[in-house]
Amino acid sequence: MPSSTSSSEPGATGWWVRPLPDTSAGVALLTAAVVFVLAMLAWEWHWRAFGSVPGMRNSEGLWAEQRRRIDGGEGDRTVIIGSSRVLFDLQLPVWQQATGRRPIQLALEGTSPMEALEGLADDPDFTGRLVVGVTPGLFFSGFAYRRSAFERYRKETPAQWMGQKLSQHLLEPWLAFYDDDFALFTVLERQPWPVRPGLDPPRLDVRKLSVADGERNTRMWARVENDPDYSALARRIWAQGFSRPPPGGPEEAAKRRDEQIERAAAAVAKLRARGVPVLFARMPSSGDFREAEMRGLPRADHWDALIARTGVPGIHFEDHPELQGYHLPEWSHLSASEADRFTAVFAPMAEAALAAQIPPE
What we know:
The protein is α/β, with parallel strands linked by helices. It has a domain at 74-156 and 208-355: SGNH hydrolase (Rossmann fold, 3-Layer(aba) Sandwich), CATH 3.40.50.1110. Helix content is 48%, strand content 7%. The strands form 2 sheets. Strands 2-1-3-6-7 form a 5-stranded parallel beta sheet, sandwiched between helices. It has a two-stranded antiparallel ribbon with strand order 4-5. Helix 12 runs parallel beside helix 14 (303-310). It starts with 24 loop residues before the first helix and ends in a 6-residue tail after the last helix. 32% of the residues are buried.
């Protein structure tokens, strides 16, 4: 008599064996593949209809690839470091047309350029010219949202290198949805879920603002410029930080500012001792963003102090009428067409300021 705890016959008191459809594994696999492809095509169609287009992901691997160009014999190039403003606003093809030089773009959004600046100062392979973008809230705080890119450059594994190549050549040029902003769980997290009583609504994360190519030449995404609701959302996201006091209060903020200026001065001294000219650049901002910067990061205590301490020239958009009057849809970055026009004016100014620091032979 079979045990009630071991019987596998349907209807017996013990285990129940779930009947399976009478089909082959091949048919099941084919069905799953068809469902997967249809779901992927639907997701791709959805984001293309939203305005997304295929483009390179501004990944840590792509940044590391561009940084290694200096190690590979291109150390005499003009290099751009900084945050998202010099990333969006300075267009490499236009710079080349205006000056005959095509820079290497190493700016990282949401990230102080200080670690990149120090890395180049300690790199004897770098003998070119350096443009350092200064976004006050990032530069003088030392905040580095994309710090992992520096670690990727220093310690990239063969598997990471291969993954970057496969993604860069097989996926990114073809798929519009292949963007961190369109990941399924990111989209789900951003839905207007009910907020539990007694809790504040969650902060809004920065949304997709740009498209990039294989050299990290980056332009504002057309939707930011052309969709009033989307640009308003971007402005609302920036505005979340305008009224927040600095961490630790004004005294700690002043201490961090002084520390960053000293770090910059030490790195610049190394570069200039090696004959590398350096230029600081303050890109435009507008609207409530500009007003918040003027209140919390006054020019005299920040930009002017940086220029005086380092002893290198700087181009501040406020000092040049030809660098003013551009359209910034979300207060912080130039639209794509305006970035072309801005670069055509800025690049010759920058190259002249850099060339003036090179002693005649």
